[in-house]
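Checklist before submission:
- one chain only
- standard amino acids only
- sequence pasted in full

Submission:
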Amino acid sequence: MTAIATSPARLTQADLEVIIEQALEEARTRGATQAEAAVSQDTGLSVGVRLGEVETLEHQRDRSMGITVYFGKRKGSAGTSDFSPPAVRATVAKACSIARFTAEDACAGLADSELMAKAPPDLDLSHPWSITADRAIDLAKACEAAAMAFDPRINNSEGASVASHRGLHVYGNTHGFVGGYPTTSHTVSCVVLAGTGEDMQRDYWYSSSRDWRELQEPEIIGRESARRTIARLDPRKLATRRAPVLFVPELARGLIGHFVAAIRGSSQYRQSSFLLDSVGQQIFPAQFSISERPHLLKAMGSAPFDDEGVATRDRELIAGGVLTGYVLSSYSARKLGLQTTGNAGGSHNLLVAPNTTGGAAAMLARLGTGLMVTELMGQGVNTVTGDYSRGAAGFWVENGAIQYPVAEITIAGNLRDMFKGIAAVGDDVDVRGGTRVGSILLEELTIAGE
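Returned file contents:
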């Protein structure tokens, strides 16, 4: 075996590839018919301040290796955080021992060799931020100070935070594939409170990016968190009714998340989805589409290959409202008699196409009279039946204009009906996560209140 440094110092991709090769060679020596290994290391800095004082200061340094071996259709897995050659050998030995006692699974094994990423593209996902703890604290204090100074009714804070993380992930298998890529993520956020007694309201705002130079200024984030908090003061309750409901972009992302959970391969083969066997069916209105774009530069959901080394690719998940395919790993694909879609580990940049222009104002105009939801609470979503019931808060809108904040209500429906009842998707797209979507307007939901 080639010796490499195993001290806490940051290792290079070449170093991690050597560890992968060591693990795979040991698996071959022990008689494994197939094997795969993943090695990662992550470092980070996060600080939090509250009311001008430092509340948290954390430096993270994590590393791990996971090895999976196959003896025919028997599978065993083990992991370690010790990268020394003896520890790697011992970890492989443990995985091999486990495999010899597991039951055979006809769907077990590596993804097909011809699907491996032959020439993974550079997606510009790594922009390290050489920020010191002192500088991060200064930025967090500036963010919170801007929020506290925004309005005299802002009288408390849950804090402002600055976080910067850097990761390196390398994967390899006995098909001969070895690949890796570095990533970074940076975030600035703020949460403040206003009001007194039972009318205490809170809200937040944040900025997140692969490239720290593209973050919003801390003062802007602070002021926006304060503006949102002040807007929620003196909320009213609503009488129970049915009405149109507008989900703001950061919550619309959750609606798409429920859809993805229902078409995930594991949900399909376990028959635990309200969208069981739905390929080719009309799930959304005809003007609705969702694309997967794994190779967007700097995007939070981008990846040149999935967790099995399978090349990621563009595809249309929803076209003309019709479901074109599931979200599959090689295992779930085999369980369904299909081929992997390169989604081991999840989806990569889902883009929901807008069908309304004019931003948030245009979506309020489309809403007319109804509820704009800005916060959801609880976990009342059943992806087996599609039943949906969540606590909510937001604003009552009449004639396209916000009238007053509302709280202590519940919105309810069934996701299948909700998806078919999407009336519009805005171009006020939130790009901070792996799902890029604007506001979503639903034709009607039950609003339970007084």
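Reviewer check: The mean pLDDT is 95.
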